[in-house]
DNA sequence: TCGTTTTTTGAATCTGGTTCAAAATATGCC
DNA sequence: GGCATATTTTGAACCAGATTCAAAAAACGA
């Protein structure tokens, strides 16, 4: 019946209100400061109502993550559509990642936190599934690019599965973000901050996979050009 | 005077008692369950006494991490002494890492948690410094190996700094652990669990750096032999 | 031995997440 | 509309557990 449809929609709207507001509060004072009661009040609802949407604070944080990753996905989908040599496309993923993380620094911190056992275990099973689901399309796109490379003869898997190669690039991205994000780490070891370090290492990895065309890192401008080109395509104002 | 020396030593012993007991409790029921009052009681001290050693629960967790990384370091130091081609040595770091993490699964989870902003910010400044200090020697060893490779002509940095190359391997290790450790992720994307995926990607990265001698991944046995050899050297009963 | 300083104690405090009985609202029926 | 029933919302009470701090105990020094 029509009534219950409207109710459903209203419920959905309220959930978005909660999430929007939570995002604002987090942006303003960090996610550690987020308080359930404060959030509810800021939305003009009682605390209990908040708990009809989220089984716990952790569950809320995970919901926030899941929503954010939709944005994340959007970026990836743009790359999926892009007609370009496979090696440019896989690298575009890294550039997009990097840019996304730079803009959404809070998101990185949040995802780091959410993936923690302490948090993960405290969210509802449904939410965990939802979050894993969010990863699926991203995974599909990345391994799609790897597959394209193999099909077009740019990449000889040498017995490795598509996923294994995708995993490599993913791990390098992931690890770089973690290191970049660890308080004081780069400074302590005097590694220059910025994406280029990661970009170069990514190309070393891709070169090591024999992913054609190989990129010559001894010519810094080649990489710089490539990055510029990709940023342009992604319409990133770096 | 002599008295205060003894006092100092007793204080130190008590701190170790707290840490040892905390480790046991964590091993038994996970670090989420760790409660300050429970821990104090288990050591036959009052809660307040615990707080004379650690400014907060987070501070305690970080102290635990710092102590663990001494073990971690030990492993690395063994590799530092090892007379072998640079490429074997850098790879040995990964194998050691991997093995260490397999054995000390709790430690990985803990370090993931501790590096989180929410936790990091809640520990004392001194503790944070201490933890960063722990990273120093590891960093020194890794970049030492990179340097050796360059000096011996196994590796042409092509303008990259020693640290940049070390960062690459580190990030790949780090990222692999994070992915491996994320609940349900490997399963969701049907990537086989186990260290070999990471090992192969590490060699792709090293090959991409043109780190000699290159390793031929199309011959699975070559890598297997190498791993076996290194495990033997590290006296790891895999 | 006694006054002073340091250390230890653990009950009280405080914070903030979570619950749930009561109140409010919506729904369906005549 | 008016009424009985079901659903939703409310927010004060509850609770867990980290942290504090005034009082008690112990150590020290003369």
From TrEMBL, chains A, B:
Pfam families: TetR_N (PF00440). Residues 35-54 bind DNA. Keywords: DNA-binding, Transcription, Transcription regulation. Transmembrane segments: none annotated. Residues 12-72 form the HTH tetR-type domain. This is TetR/AcrR family transcriptional regulator. It comes from Alkalimonas cellulosilytica. The lineage of its organism: Bacteria, Pseudomonadati, Pseudomonadota, Gammaproteobacteria, Alkalimonas.
């Amino acid at each position: 019946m029509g009534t219950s449809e409207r109710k459903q929609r209203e419920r959905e709207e309220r959930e978005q209100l909660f999430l929007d507001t939570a995002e604002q509060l987090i942006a303003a004072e960090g996610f550690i400061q987020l308080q359930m009661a404060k959030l509810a009040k800021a939305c003009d609802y009682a605390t209990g109502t908040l708990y009809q949407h989220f089984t716990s604070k952790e569950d809320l944080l995970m919901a926030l993550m899941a929503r954010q990753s939709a944005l994340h996905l959007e970026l990836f989908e743009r790359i999926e559509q892009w007609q370009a040599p496979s090696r440019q496309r896989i690298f575009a993923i890294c550039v997009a990642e990097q840019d996304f993380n730079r803009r959404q620094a809070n998101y990185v911190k949040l995802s780091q936190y959410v993936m923690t056992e302490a948090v993960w275990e405290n969210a509802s099973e449904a939410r965990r599934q939802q979050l894993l689901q969010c990863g699926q399309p991203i995974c599909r796109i990345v391994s799609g690019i790897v597959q394209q490379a193999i099909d077009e003869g740019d990449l000889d898997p040498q017995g490795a599965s598509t996923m294994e190669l995708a995993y490599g690039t993913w791990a390098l991205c992931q690890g770089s973000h973690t290191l970049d994000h660890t308080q004081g780490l780069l400074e302590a070891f005097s590694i220059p901050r910025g994406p280029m370090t990661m970009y170069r290492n990514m190309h070393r990895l891709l070169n090591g996979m024999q992913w054609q065309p190989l990129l010559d890192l001894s010519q810094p401008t080649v990489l710089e050009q490539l990055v510029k080109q990709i940023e342009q395509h992604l319409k990133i104002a770096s």
